[in-house]
Amino acid sequence: MGKGITRRDVLKLSGLTLGGLAMGNTAVAGDCKAQPLDPTKRNDLIDSLPPFYPGKETLSPIEMRITFVGTSFLPRLAQECNSIFVEVGGGKNGEALDQFIFDCGSGVVAKYNALGIPMRKMDKIFLTHLHGDHMSDLTHIYLFGPAQDRKTPLYIWGPGPSGLTDPIDSHVYNDDGLNVFCQKFRDMLRWHTESFSFLSTSYQNYDPPTKADWGLPVNPLPIVPTIGPPDPTNADGYGVGGYSVVPIQLDWTKNGDKDNNIAYYNAATGVKITHFPMIHARKGSIGYKLEWKGMSMIFSGDSRPSYEMINQASGVNVLIHEMVVPAEVWAAKNLGYRTPSEAYSDPNFQSALTVANAVQASSHTPQGALGYILSQIQPPPKLAVATHFQATDDTIRSAFDSIRNHYPNGDVTIAADLMVLTVTANKVIKRKAVVNDYAWYPLAQLSDKLAEPKYHDDQGNMDPTAQIDQTELIPPGTDAKGNPTYDPSGY
Ligand SMILES: [Zn+2]
Ligand SMILES: [Zn+2]
After folding, report:
1. Same domain membership, residue 332 and residue 216
2. Cα 285 to averaged position of ligand 2 atoms, centre (Å)
3. Average pLDDT over residues 386-401
4. In sequence order, which residues have a C-beta less than 8 Å from that of residue 235 and are 6 or more positions away?
């Protein structure tokens, strides 16, 4: 057992696992389901948490709930890419008063569905940077939201251009900021958005929020596209709707605290979100701090260890910070080994290690560095959560060792998908959501009268066949010669 691991940490790792480390085989657990004891294939830290039942528990007016929907840089069945969902209490019937997504990497929509989070609540997305493992599932959220119950725009916050020129030809400048990203995103998805526009994708009356409503850094909001001649199809033909994309581009050089630079401030709900620069891969990555009713949460996105984080995290309730496995672990796993010691003799190990070290040097926070950062934050966070980390019993134990060498006592955990935190002024409770692996979309709830669909008939009703050629179509019921074909009810 590592010298840095505390008794409390150990209690989180069940006896089964510790036995499994020695035995390396399979035991039969109480539920008669075979559980692998291999510490590279299980996560007792998350599986030992008490259950949280989504949809069965109200959110009180003094509670913030943070759900880890994706927690890894690489997508895998147990861990999708990065996303957290943050809700604040005080809404009608014990629902959230306001809610936000921070990052939405590959695969997270499956977990959002499993958690029963409807598309109408997935309309405010704060991106820390534009790496694929932080924004890939924007595509699904954007495209299928209007077919469900998000009939209002998708609001996307994120950093403006890095300002970097091309190293090969300094005359080449590619705008890599959020505004251009959103314009191209809107354009490249036109086949999908048009094809679904036989359904109503907007409300008859919808007023986009203003600076007064959301304290926005840009006002009025740019509804994509904003460049070029006016596009009558921009607003789905019927005002601002579900296929409108609204980029809220932030100046990544600004610091939320020092510059009073606000990404979002809603006087009605009391939620304030600021941003600050992080150090990751290329200029332009940012972290976010959400403050509400005297509580606060930081989501780092990706970063190398940063002094700014130590300043920002002073006294926060929850600090969610990225962390990376040691480079030699990364290299070994990428070569298909369980541990570095198994990989040392592989002729490809050194080159894999060189790459892993380079990734760390450009982009990420090592385990011990996170421990150091936590040790420097005064007062320390009530709970620190490491994420963006491939969490299994073997990597978790090593990470606790490294963190505890610097930060022996504070409350720390390591995120996995479906971990749910209930945050109140003085306490953070950790649980794991119990979900249905086979969930459909949650129940759609509309809040106003729908506008006419873009592809409609003379009566203004949807016209599902307006965009298809029916000449070779086999009709339901009977064909042109009166011969039976197939049952129109679908059975
Ligand atoms: Zn990442
Ligand atoms: Zn990244």
Report:
1. no
2. 8
3. 98
4. 202, 223, 241, 244
Residues 353 and 253 in one domain: no
Domain assignment of residue 9, yes or no? no
- 462-465: which pairs have CB atoms within 8 A and are 24 or more residues apart? 462/198, 462/199, 462/200, 463/198, 464/198
Both 83 and 207 in a single domain?
yes
Structural domain boundaries enclosing 357: 326-363
**275 and 347 fall within a common domain:** no
Looking at residue 423, its pLDDT comes to: 98
Dist. CA 461 → ligand 2 center (Å): 45
Cα–Cα distance list, 171 to 52, 120, 164 (Å): 54, 43, 11
Q: Is the pLDDT confidence value at 86 over 90?
A: yes
Is the pTM higher than 0.85? The answer reads yes
Q: What is the pLDDT at residue 135? A: 98
**Boundary-marking domain end, from 395, 418, 433:** 433
Instruction: Calculate how far, in angstroms, residue 129's C-alpha sits from the geometric centre of ligand 1.
Output: 9
The total of structural domains in the chain comes to 2
- Residue pair 352/328 in contact (Cβ under 8 Å)? The answer is no
Looking at all shown ligands, the one closest to residue 280's CA atom is: 2
Residue 200 Cα to ligand 1 midpoint, Å, equals 36
Residue pLDDT, tens place only, 237-254: 445 889 989 999 999 999
Expressed in angstroms and rounded, the spacing between residue 360 Cα and the centre of ligand 2 is: 11
Asked whether residue 346 falls in the same domain as residue 373, the answer is no
The partner residues of 247 in beta bridges, in order of sequence, read 156
Map residue 358 onto helix, strand or coil.
helix
Range with the lowest mean pLDDT among 86-95, 166-175, 423-432? 166-175
CA 43 to ligand 1 center in whole angstroms: 21
Regarding whether 303 and 162 lie in a shared domain, the answer is: yes
Which residue among 433, 464, 480 closes a domain?
Answer: 433
- Same-domain pairing of 318 and 349: no
